[in-house]
Sequence to fold (189 residues):
Amino acid sequence: MKKALLVLLLSGLFCTALAQRIAVVDLKKVFDKYYKSRIAEEFLKQQTEAVKLHLAQLTREHQQLTNEANRLATNAGNAALDKAARDKAQNDAENLMRQAKTKYAEIQMYLEGRRKELQKLEKSRRQEILADIHAEIKKRAAAGNYTYVFDSSGFTNNDQPAILVFPAKHDISDAVIRELNRTASAPKK
Fold:
């Protein structure tokens, strides 16, 4: 009796499993080919370039302060100058070195602040894009009566594809990409 019940239970689970429809989507491919990803990437490149330009300006200012401080420090040791001129040069050199240290601290704070800001911006844009992608995948899953949709772009700890074999007809990646990009504005000629 127990054996018959177990066989009945297992056959019911097997039949239920057969009734499940499964699809796969290459999430990396979809993300890379979605037009909003390219827009976000270009925006982040522009932001990074603006940071680099400002950083170059701050670095030039720091270098000028350091060079001038070194020049004055050299004058402070020049025996050809009178004591008052050497003392003034030494005092000015020390002031400029403090300014250079302050400028260096400003550079470090700027870098850290912009790095965090860019990371936050990138994460935000990525989440927006993934929300669009997930919404479209859910629509496709509902329309295709798929119970499960697996990401085929992932790899295991052995650097092997997480999904080794699947029928190409169950890959909905291209359909998702087409639908997501359908609303992209046509390039101007």
The chain has five helices and two strands. The chain has a mean pLDDT of 87. The radius of gyration is 32 Å.
